[in-house]
Amino acid sequence: MITAGGRIDLEMNGEVYKPRGVVKIMPTSVEVESGTNMNGSGYRTIKPVNAKIELTFERDRFRWDDKMMLADWNVTVVERDVKPTVTHVATAATMVGRPEIDTATGELTGITLETDAYRAV
After folding, report:
1. Using one digit for the tens of pLDDT, what is the confidence trace for 68-100?
2. CATH number at residue 27
């Protein structure tokens, strides 16, 4: 049986953040697309991509311009309640997107971290 959900620990560059909603992880470094030729036969293309971690977390009081322009983010996401525990590590990640703060809930969305150095342990 697969266990999913539960508590998430999030650390970015040594600072602990509070994940608020879903953390989406896109662990692959390739993207495959398929199509159909005019004679009905199929084809596929493969292109390299960065692994991605999409985050939603509790807003904090810091300067977003400074955080986003920081060159490298070392990110650790730990799924604590799955068996066995899964740790996702993204090294030298780049923060992309545009932060959006929901003032009613305090949730921050719109941030994705992209890296060519992802692993799950």
Report:
1. 777 789 999 999 998 889 999 999 999 999 889
2. 2.40.30
- List beta partners, residue 55: 111
Specify the long-range contacts of residues 20-23, CB closer than 8 Å, at least 24 apart: 20/56, 20/57, 20/58, 20/105, 20/106, 20/107, 20/108, 21/56, 21/57, 21/107, 21/109, 22/56, 23/53, 23/54, 23/55, 23/56, 23/77
pTM here?
A: 0.83
What is the pLDDT, as a whole number, of residue 74? 94
Is 1 contained in some domain? no
Number of domains in the chain: 1
The token duo for 91 is 């090294």
Q: What is the mean pLDDT of the chain?
A: 90
Phi-psi category of residue 66: left, alpha or beta, with phi > 0 → left and psi -120 to 50 → alpha: alpha
User: What pLDDT, on a 0 to 100 scale, did the predictor assign at position 57?
Assistant: 84
Domain that residue 57 falls in = 8-120
